[in-house]
Amino acid sequence: MTNDGVQRLAELIVRFGANVQPGQVVGVGAEPGKEDLARAIAAAAYRAGAKFVDVTYFDLHVKRARVEFADEDTLEYVPPWFGERLTQIGEMHGSRIGLTGPVAPGLLDDLDPARVAKDQLPFLKETIEIVNARTTNWCAAPGPTPAWAKLVFPDLDEDAAYAKLWEQILHVCRLDEADPVAAWKERADKLVAVAGRLTERRFDAVRFVGPGTDLKVGLLPTSKWIAARFETIDGLVHMPNLPSEEIFSTPDPTRVDGHVTSTKPLVVAGNIIRGLKVTFEGGVATQIDADEGADVMRGMVQRDEGAARLGEVALVDGEGRIGPLGTVFYDTLLDENAASHVALGSAYAMCVDEPDVPAINTSAIHVDFMIGSPEVDVLGVTADGDEVPVLVGGAWEV
What we know:
Layout: H1 3-17, E1 25-30, H2 35-47, E2 52-57, H3 60-69, H4 80-91, E3 95-100, H5 113-118, H6 125-133, E4 137-142, H7 146-152, H8 158-172, H9 180-201, E5 205-210, E6 213-219, E7 226-227, E8 230-231, E9 237-238, E10 246-249, E11 251-261, E12 266-268, E13 271-273, E14 277-281, E15 284-289, H10 294-300, E16 310-316, H11 332-336, E17 341-345, E18 366-370, E19 377-381, E20 387-392, E21 395-396
Parallel strand pairs: 1-2, 1-3, 3-4
Antiparallel strand pairs: 5-6, 5-19, 6-11, 7-10, 8-9, 10-16, 11-14, 12-13, 14-15, 16-17, 17-18, 19-20, 20-21
Helix pairs in contact: 1-2, 4-6, 7-8
């Protein structure tokens, strides 16, 4: 990739996505293989006035060694300084930037799925706590690597695949626009407006209906729909995801019933899960099957009591830039913004009012999986049981 593309993506992430402010401490999370973009982000953050930029790299090869050789009873252990780092960035009202995308696809495939599921790193439970506290302005964005590109475009040689992955990422991040920031603001305005209309309807539930899917997800009395833009408790507006095409809410974790089939593969703990099928009864995932990787998901939902319940429901229309490409990116950030999705595990407290905070789901995990497509309709269910079209054929009806 040309240095120009790396620099433009870094500037967009820092200046618009995370909205780094003068005097802030900035935490950057990356993996070996993403050094060029991580360094460009650090430089952009310092140009924006950052007080200090702390870049940390998580090495999946080291994780493989742990899963393969460590005592099984130790696999769930997370050193306290991992969470303390996040907590302190929150206490300092700092900024956080994370780079997504696989660097070593298939590296854990031959390991015992039950052991793989026990080691949640690099995910930290403190992440959801910091998000809910709204003390940091943050952004997650893709960090392309040659290995990731070859996974996405296996029929191309390495150089061509890498070039195409960069081309598509610059496109979905709207960096091919004359004014990417203006383009993002226009898109965000539309999504925020739709979220507001959905919130005003006060649906009791939403229902997903399509091939292999008939799932009813209950909502809490004060569940709100949120889109695109976040605001910290200090009033800093930021884009938590680049790209971001979703609107999302917090469901009632006790009222999810039916069955659902994933519409895209997902990557969990370094493993690719394909053809996921989940049955819910009374809010609990009671049956999990998949064409590949079922044991990994089964292990994940055994993590704690909330791991088998939903913490998020999100809707994605057909006007975003990711879905129309038809590319499976094998990266949750990109794939979840191509299709409606739900997430097992921790919920976002910002999506409910104070009286409902005690009712939201809590867990040490948060695992999104995609369930939407143009063939999956979304209906809003009123308190009286009437069903109202919300998202049909990828188009908003509200």
